[in-house]
Amino acid sequence: MYGRLLLPELQVMLDENDNAGIREFCEALYPAVTAEILAELDSREVWRVISCCDSQKQAEIFQFLSLPQQIEIVAVIDRGPLSKLIEEMAPDDRVDLLSRMDEEHVEELLPLIAQAERSDIRKLLSYPEDSAGAIMTTEYAYLPANITVAQALEKLRQQAPDSEIISYIYVVDEGRRLQGIVSLRELIFARPTRPLSELINRDVISVRVDDDQEFVAQQMAKFDFVAIPVVDNQNQLVGIVTHDDAIDIMQEEATEDAYRLAAVEPLEDSYLSTSLLTVIRKRIGWLIFLLVPSFLAAKVLEHYEAVSDKFEWLVLFIPLILASGGNAGSQSATLIIRAMALETNIQREELNALLMKEFKLGLLLGSMLSLISFGISWAFTGALMQATVVGLAVFLVVLMGISAGGMLPMGFRKLGMDPALMSNPFITALVDILGLIIYFQVAMYIVS
Amino acid sequence: MYGRLLLPELQVMLDENDNAGIREFCEALYPAVTAEILAELDSREVWRVISCCDSQKQAEIFQFLSLPQQIEIVAVIDRGPLSKLIEEMAPDDRVDLLSRMDEEHVEELLPLIAQAERSDIRKLLSYPEDSAGAIMTTEYAYLPANITVAQALEKLRQQAPDSEIISYIYVVDEGRRLQGIVSLRELIFARPTRPLSELINRDVISVRVDDDQEFVAQQMAKFDFVAIPVVDNQNQLVGIVTHDDAIDIMQEEATEDAYRLAAVEPLEDSYLSTSLLTVIRKRIGWLIFLLVPSFLAAKVLEHYEAVSDKFEWLVLFIPLILASGGNAGSQSATLIIRAMALETNIQREELNALLMKEFKLGLLLGSMLSLISFGISWAFTGALMQATVVGLAVFLVVLMGISAGGMLPMGFRKLGMDPALMSNPFITALVDILGLIIYFQVAMYIVS
Q1: What is the 3-state secondary structure (H, E, C) of A390-423?
Q2: Inter-chain contact A312–B317, Cβ cutoff 8 Å?
Q3: Which of B244, B259, B305, B355 should be substituted to probe chain A, the one whose Cβ sees the most A Cβ atoms within 10 Å?
């Protein structure tokens, strides 16, 4: 918004090859703002802009570009400057990028990257996607326990430019095993000769390198941490995950859950930058699968053809029956899936209470919708019997829809699967079939 | 999970009135963990536990309890200890609590609270809900510009225990107007005699006290900030919003969007702790409203009764027609609503490109589903003409569903409304009506 106003200015400087001006432009703005402006340019132009800056600024700006744009840009940069750029990037951001590039391209680049960075990259690339190891950064401040406050501050002075967050400093033993944390605040206000060991908080919460990123973000949200340390199987400190990653993960997971609820497979990038072909792949599977219950519904209707032939008005209310069960069911499913996403350790008793609540809701919401449907369909058809069939069927279908919408995600969870894998269209489809059977059974019972 | 294992131990100490033991128990655990255990106890027991601790620890633990539980607990605490507890709480957390308590109860309490805290509370309570002012904290570190590094550190030493985040320190002028920020890292590593003004980064990003909390969280996510300063109309610094609030807001907004997509009005508390009556109020409105399109669909079916009487097989595929349009439409709506939630400044051209993409998707997904439906319904009915009607109708209905699912949220946005107000069941309902019309028109065209 702010950035777009500056785009023409940048364009002029590009046209006039005013490299000094471009450099000044980039120095003056927040990297995030520069990146927002660069999102409007093509890959070669972006590289022309950032190559005017020093290598640190280059990496800062580049890291704020979206991953798809980063991938496009690395394709147009020569290997020399590209390896420099990658060396300067934060460890977690560069691994995100490298894991999405062609393997061949990466193998060409790695020999050009400094030894220390290279082995760091190889290690981070080896962690499974969506694990704590894959999102952590290896640039954090750490200290041994057996030094004084003054020595600690001196050591930090050396580490500081490299470490992402130094509000907390991690204390490790000779084997790099995590011993505890010290807050920078306490450190700078402590007497310089005091032993560091007196300041250590040894009750430190950490995550494992193979923990799922969603768990990591939930821990950070729960404890309100700025950063959380990541340890391996030997309790050796291997990295930290920072608050900005936690926000990104939360957004990513919320988007995934929203997609799944609407029967779309999660996308890797934003919808805007995902190709048509990928979108089709992510959508068509569910759509085809959902044809099956629709044909089963056709079978059900065929089965009751004798009834619907005799009482043609029954057909008119099929959309009503299908919609009321489906809508009430997807409300329940969404409420329960979201509750389980936010609260990971719901107990068995709470689940049972939740199911009981859903059942009561089914009775109450079913009664209300039933009464209204009864009234309208009476006005619509002018026949009490027909209105009775519709009213009673709506009651039963809403009750069934809500029970199914509540029980299916819980069933998924009991089977050890992510309840968010259950989509609302799938629940609606199941409710459709059962709803039609209920409707025609009620009709047969009342009219015959 | 971890906490629940310790619950029996705490119960024993409660039964034995072992106050010293309880105090030790609370001191040993993270406040967040203690709070998790306390969630299992009733209000009086919780208060018995935390009243064993000193007032600072009391407030720390209390702040990690859920808001509904906090409200239950304050009802059983005497005014004296309660006012002490509230004094100790963080300004943003206590205002959250007070704004949800009975006004009478609050007015009784305020006179018992220290003057400084009281006026802070009155001020924060005056900001609109969901604004930056309502979520910010007033405990932050700030400095005047005209001092040295050594003087700055001395001032911070005095402020530190009270300020939530001191990775960044805010520099203000005599009128408390925000001048810039200094990073604590730079401050501690600078020469003590250096003027503070040389370290100030004057290009500071802030939010207004009346900005929406969603905007605040998005700014923090965009710039990867640990905290963002909040200023009033005169650019006076009035508070900061911290990273943990940003995560909470993101979760709250994602949950709201998920609820709205499923036609549920947002809840104030978690689903687990919301009363049956409130849940009914949040669900029934949409459910009743959605009956209207169902009766319109009945009208449509009545209109085409002559056709469906003559060609009874048409009825069998009504669920298929309704489901394929609705499913494809809610996929599109969800993708677009989520894209607009994550990317607030999408431009007009991008929206048009998105709509064009949706239209192409409609053509492609429609063709695929059409072919499959054609095949299955041919096998199902054994009649080429019937399969042709179904296949062609599915194509048109999917194309229409996807176009509507894409256009409706964008239309909402153009009208200046939140696109997430559009629910998937509503889109499905509209698509149902149009879908039935398309289906019968196709049938009339082909069979007659």
Answers
A1: HHHHHHHHHHHHHHHHHHHHHHHHHCCCCHHHCC
A2: no
A3: B244
A307: which chain B residues are within 8 Å (Cβ-Cβ)?
A: none
Q: Determine how many CB atoms are found less than 10 A away from the CB of residue A155.
A: 17
| Chain A nearest CA to B372, separation (Å) | 8
**Cα(B67)–Cα(B52) distance, rounded to whole angstroms?**
21
Chain B nearest-CA distance from A175, in A, is: 26
Cα B330 → chain centroid: 21
Which token pair is B266?
Answer: 């947002």
Interface test with A, best of B289, B310, B327 (most A CBs within 10 A): B327
Q: Is A143 helix (H, G, I), strand (E, B) or coil?
A: strand
Contacts of A76 (CB under 8 A, 6+ apart): A43, A44, A47
How do the pLDDT tens digits run along chain A, 448 residues long?
556 678 888 888 989 989 998 998 888 888 888 888 888 888 899 999 998 998 888 998 998 888 888 988 988 888 888 888 988 888 888 888 888 888 888 888 888 888 888 888 888 888 888 899 988 988 888 899 899 999 998 888 777 666 666 678 899 998 889 999 998 878 888 888 999 999 898 888 999 999 999 899 988 988 888 899 999 999 999 999 998 888 888 888 888 888 888 888 888 888 888 888 999 999 999 999 999 999 999 999 999 988 888 888 999 999 999 999 999 999 999 998 888 877 766 777 788 888 889 999 999 999 999 999 999 999 988 899 999 999 999 999 999 999 999 888 888 888 877 777 778 888 899 999 999 999 999 999 998 7
Q: Do B291 and A263 touch (CB under 8 A)?
A: no
Mind spelling out the 3-state secondary structure of B348-407? HHHHHHHHHHHHHHHHHHHHHHHHHHHHHHHHHHCCHHHHHHHHHHHHHHHHHHHHHHHH
Chain B contacts of A243, Cβ < 8 Å? 226, 243-244, 247
Query: Residue B200: which of B238, B240, B169, B163 has the closest Cα?
Result: B169
Are the beta carbons of A302 and B316 separated by less than 8 Å? yes
ipTM above 0.90 for this complex:
no
Q: Least CA distance to A433: which residue of chain B?
A: B319
Angle B153-B156-B162 from CA coordinates, rounded to 5°: 165
In terms of phi and psi (left: phi > 0; alpha: psi -120 to 50; beta: otherwise), the region of B17 is left
Contact A287 B369 (CB under 8 A): yes
Q: Which residue in A has a C-alpha nearest to residue B329's C-alpha?
A: A262
Domains of chain A, each with CATH number or no CATH: 3-126 (1.25.60.10), 142-248 (3.10.580.10), 290-447 (1.10.357.20)
Closest CB to B258: pick one of A334, A429, A436: A334
Amino acid at A285: G
- Neighbouring C-beta atoms of residue B411, cutoff 10 Å: 13
Interchain pair A166, B153: CB under 8 A:
no
For an interface test with B, which of A301, A338, A430 has the most B Cβ atoms less than 10 Å from its Cβ? A338
Report residue B444 as tokens. Answer: 């009339």
Please judge whether A324 and B287 are an interchain contact, meaning their C-beta atoms are less than 8 angstroms apart: yes
Beta bridge partners of A230: A207, A239
Contact criterion met (CB below 8 Å) for A258 and B338 = yes
The verdict on a CB contact (< 8 Å) between A291 and B223 is: no
- Name the minimum distance, in Å, from the CA of A52 to any CA of chain B: 21
Cβ-proximal residues to B204 (8 Å cutoff; 6+ apart), any chain: B178, B180, B181, B229
